[in-house]
Amino acid sequence: MREPARTAALRCPDWPVTAARRRDPSLVGVPVAVVDRGQLGLRVVAASAEARAEGVASGLRRREAEARCAGLVVLDADEAGDARAFEEVARAVERHVPRLVLHEPGALSFATRGPSRYFGGDDALAALVVDTVARLGVTDVTVGIAAGVFAADLAASRAADLAASRAVDLVASRAVVVPPGETVAFLAEWPVSVLAGAVDASHEQGDGGALTDLFARLGLRTLGDVAALPESAVAARFGSPGLLAHRLARGEPGHEPVAREVPPELVETMELDPPATRVDEAAFAAKALADRLLGRLDAMGCCCTRVVVEAETEHGERLTRCWRHEGALTPSTLVARVRWQLEAWLVASDAGVAAPGATVDDAADAEMATGGLTVLRLAPDDVIPATGRQLGFWGGDPAAADRAGRALARVQALLGPDAVATALPVGGRTPIERVRWVPWGDARDETPDPAPWPGAVPGPAPARVFDPPVPAALLDARGEPVTVSGRGETSAPPVALECPALPGGGGPLVAWAGPWAHDLRWWSQRRRRVLWQVVVDARETQVACLVAVERGRAAVEALYD
Amino acid sequence: MAPAASPTISELPKLPRRDDAARAHLQEVGRATRPVSLAHERVLELGSSLGSLVPRGSVARGAVVRVAGVSGAGVTSLGLELAAACTRAGEWVAAVDPAGSLGALAAREAGVVLERFAVVRRVPPARWASVVAALLDGVTLVLADLPPEGVGVADGRRLVARARERETVLVVGDRWPADAALTLRARAAEWVGRGEVHHLTERRLLVHAEAPAGAREGWLARAV
């Protein structure tokens, strides 16, 4: 069996909180939660130990989190700031270990073969790395070493569990090393739910949760159960997400690399003249590079999971950093990573030069830019075949949804988050009641079509709904307002309607239908509302509208425009 | 299978055309759902009812459509017809609704897919042009009700140019100060099936379509 290269994974759980505390020391010891706006609205993405003790967990709504923990400090996510803070950790680790691969702020991995021999074994290496990072003040770091990134990641989270269960927190106990050849046995006891994230990231449909759910319901509760299945049976039943899960469960790499050596023509280079000294200048150039790189890979039917960001400065320094993403890098994830890295180099250099006693040599040692960037280079590191994207059968295009989402987010930035909404039909009797406006970005809790309510106004839906209704006068043949008795009986049939919302201010009725009587809030203050559909003759056209009479006052609720 | 039992290709035209209505429906579905962004024809196909009044049955992407008429005569419904043609093809539509009175249920009855129909409600008049400009970047059709104060000529021209550049259809109201490639005028609405014991059931709209290629007028019927 092909065992993947031995890898160490370093995890700083809840890095956004750690980074925020490094920026603002007054947050230490205070319950803190970081929220980010995702597909399901504003959710907690990271929480401090104090907040977790009170029941705050990732994925909670902001309001729910605040309700569980009094005095919770809620911060907005700042990924660029997190990445900048993590650069310090990456630099410290890099002094001992070459070729780091960054996954996201708070997570990195590296191959251990060389460093382990140099430092005298995996255990010594893990202890050294934990110690190095802990010296920076990041005490909750954990390290896992196993064959392959997936297993190493699980080993790191095992280390976090162990550290949490121990009364005395020893630095050496923050690492879990899975001995060579025992990775498969180590994986076998994990529940299948740990596969969800990896499957989600590499398949656009994002069905990892559904897949692991299905595994559990079929009686496959641990990775060992999944690994015991024959590969062909998994492929036939669960398709490519299932195959990926199966490979990971058996401790194999998630995919076969096509080319170990990346052909040199795939490296995208851009010279910057004049040199870029500000992050946005460099990021703008990086965006064009990223688009070109992914376009080229796309044309070859490939995608990449790791990319090396390289920059040269005016002073001849060469900075390199490798970023990895679970699943293939998309334009937006690639640009975000490149931007984080550039920010880490350029912004950190400003801080470094400003620090007293810092010299150019120090800066070069610490891997940061002492001048503007002159060359920017993106090299794909791990090229795999693209499994492709299935477009919607009826012409639905995910790119169009992305584009629309960006435009609507811009409008929300202009007018506020509640200004953009999509409509959700809900139960009710009048046109106003039957629609709920869901702000763009919040979850549409789609329910099957509500059954019509008794007393609902039948017929087509009006295209204009006035909220609040426009005051009007519904008159009978003698010119008196039409009123409704307590039993819902009308005083006289309506004959004319006058309202400023109608063309010509209203006119005689051609026809009417109704009335539909509603009792409103009979439990507190009994109110009776009566609705009519009327068709008004407005000379060249007929205008149909919905008129409500309540407490002797008439109002036009809606216009069938 | 016995060869005699299966009709050969030459026999196919002789088979009875049993269900003309179903065939017509299938053809319309095919027309509405085929990829609309072929390289040589950047148009938005309208459905059969509105399409019969418009030259070539389609609106060019990047065109401005003016929808005019007195309120109550079906102005809003015409706009929703255009939006429905767009979302049926899997595309996105945004509506700008300064009055906050657009009826979402009517949109759904017209055939609009509500998940892809974002409504910007209660836009301040000063921000109207910038909101419409931002929306033109992202969606295929923008249904923009004018603010009560109207729109300046310069803003109007800028939006026309932007719509053309982004290949987005812009649907505007009566008092649009700049030019429009197509004008749909709701002339009159006529309700049928009404009565003192019944309720509103069905309506016909008299629509006048005016394009550089010629004008046409006709009744649009929809069992609503």
List the helices and strands and how they pair.
The complex is a heterodimer of chains A (561) and B (224).
Chain A: E1 6-11, H1 15-23, E2 32-38, E3 41-47, H2 49-53, H3 62-68, E4 73-76, H4 79-94, E5 101-104, E6 107-111, H5 113-119, H6 122-135, E7 142-147, H7 149-165, E8 175-177, H8 183-188, H9 196-202, H10 208-217, H11 223-227, H12 231-249, E9 268-276, H13 279-299, E10 302-313, E11 318-324, H14 331-354, H15 360-365, E12 373-385, H16 398-415, E13 420-425, E14 435-439, E15 464-475, E16 496-498, E17 506-520, E18 527-538, E19 541-550, E20 553-560
Parallel strand pairs in A: 2-4, 5-11, 7-8
Antiparallel strand pairs in A: 1-6, 1-7, 2-3, 5-6, 9-12, 10-11, 10-12, 13-14, 15-16, 15-20, 16-17, 17-18, 18-19, 19-20
Helix pairs in contact in A: 1-4, 4-14, 5-6, 9-10, 9-12, 13-14
Chain B: H1 20-33, E1 37-38, E2 41-45, H2 48-51, E3 58-60, E4 64-68, H3 75-88, E5 93-97, H4 104-110, E6 117-121, H5 128-138, E7 141-144, H6 153-166, E8 169-172, E9 182-192, E10 202-211, E11 214-222
Parallel strand pairs in B: 4-8, 4-9, 5-6, 5-7, 7-8
Antiparallel strand pairs in B: 1-2, 2-3, 9-10, 10-11
